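Internal tracking record. Fields below are filled automatically when a chain is submitted to the structure queue. Please do not edit lines marked as system-generated. If the sequence contains nonstandard residues, flag them in the REMARKS field before resubmitting.
Queue: standard
Priority: normal
Entity type: single polypeptide chain
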Amino acid sequence: MIGQRESVSGAHFAFTDRWGGVSAAPYEELNLGGAVGDAPEAVRANRDGAAKSLGLDAGRVVWMNQVHGADVAVVDEPWGDRPVPEVDAIVTTRRGLALAVLTADCVPVLLADPAAGVVAAAHAGRPGMVKGVVPAAVRAMIELGAEPGRITARTGPAVCGRCYEVPERMRAEVAAVEPAAHAETGWGTPAVDVSAGVHAQLDRLGVRDRAQSPVCTLESGDHFSYRRDRTTGRLAGYVWLD
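SYSTEM-GENERATED OUTPUT FOLLOWS
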């Protein structure tokens, strides 16, 4: 259920895999995405189970309506009956409030400055990386007292540069914004490495404590991949402070 978990100075980071849930094919098993066609009751059960396995209250997890943009919302409580906003990053100073990001090839980015009491979660697909969603999240953290040199950054399972084939024109457009994302597939065609682009952006911002998951979602049968399967579930990354 929880494929990766780490704690650093009271900040907690976790990434799920696809197992341990109740969803049926093609969403089997631990689909956490509520807008991919899965049964709503299965998604609720999966979110409850994932939260419980992390020692969290599912009602204290904040989700996003992700749209491949660069907008950021600062939150201090779950949305409740309010509409979930169309943002691709959320930030909080509320301890015990978990922030969640959904992915199935895009890069889930979890950020924390425990000293300042600020955490953020961001959804960085190719469009969001180009638009600067991760720098926007870091800037929002800084406005709340974080310092780049104190931020811990963890990126989760995502499609790797060896597998993310794109047209040459698209690679050139992406690389013009973020040169570190320029890549080539294992079979010698143009590609984009979104994780490399995200980490280059974080490095320029002064975020030095970074780690990247070695998992390629397209290659791993233990993870959901939109590029591989199209109709499929969503993984989640969670970040929170004690």
